[in-house]
Design a protein that fits this description.
Length: 371
Amino acid sequence: MSGFQVYNNSNFTDGVNITTACQWNIAKTILTFVFAITFLVNLFAALVIFRIPIDKSRKLANVQICVRILNILDLCQAFLMCIMPFFVSSDCGWFGGVPSCSILGYIGSILLVISPYIVTVMSFDRLLSVWRPLYYRSHFNMSVTVKIVVCIVVFVLLQMALPFVGVGRYMLYEGRGVCLLDMYSGDAGSIVITSLYMGEGLVSIILVAVWSILTVVGVKRMSSQIPQSSQMNRQARKANIGQFNKMTLAIGVLYIVCYLPFVARKFIEMVQGKHYLTTGPAASITFGLIFLNPLANPIVYVAFIRSYRSKVRHYFAWLPCRAANCACGAYREDQKKKTRHQSTVSAISITSTSSGPVSPNSRTSSTSFEL
């Protein structure tokens, strides 16, 4: 294809057959299937996440906003990776030529780069809420988080547009059937933008790791300082804020596990002067781990947040379950418990009304306990 650079010859690969590199094969089938599953899982997660209202009263709105943004990014990324292989022909042509590949590569690179920034913001949010709670409540509100995210998006949009002004370029990775940022050609522009991208990734990984450790230390310190008499407050904190702290920590660990091998491999290759597309198990695993992250994120959301689990049970309540510990059975058990609790509260209210007016102090105490 004239004027269109493809990684399909000895200058850029180590052992790829030029006659079969762009033909549909079992690897592309597996990748497309995985991306399709990732898209469906994130689509279902979006139905769950966006049905849960943002809880502004308990200072958890920042994390909920980040989870929603991360879910949208993962959903769009999975969809884009699903359709990209269908743009490639058997002779390594691309439907729409260079403009189409560049635009899709630009969008795909943006989605890949923004996600680590969102995880970094989530880690910093939890760190600040644990170590500087007063400052966090008074200054780090939802509007500040939205402004930070907007700045990140603008920065990434400008950074990923550098290939359009001659610094780097977007290329077709024929063995994987995707157009993404060129990180292997070895020219000056490619080396500059790859070094910038990998440097940002390494800094992000280090920050997430350090902030996650400090958050765990801060939570333990706060728990040890809570007096034994405030057991109710401790349980409320553990049930509400604690689950979001654990979820953020799990997302941070998952991000490090999925991104660090690729970043480390790229730095090693750059130091060794390997400015070409390497193949083999190490390259495939490190590349695949990045795209495994969007598939695992929704599982983390549901595993750690009770309200998300309840909504999932609600969606599966129609299934003919018999076991009480399955999803729909657990949901039905929860509904029965809520009904019994409401009946008990109604009975207490009737008894209190018949026995006399309720004192203001007792009413306040009851309300505080429910909250």
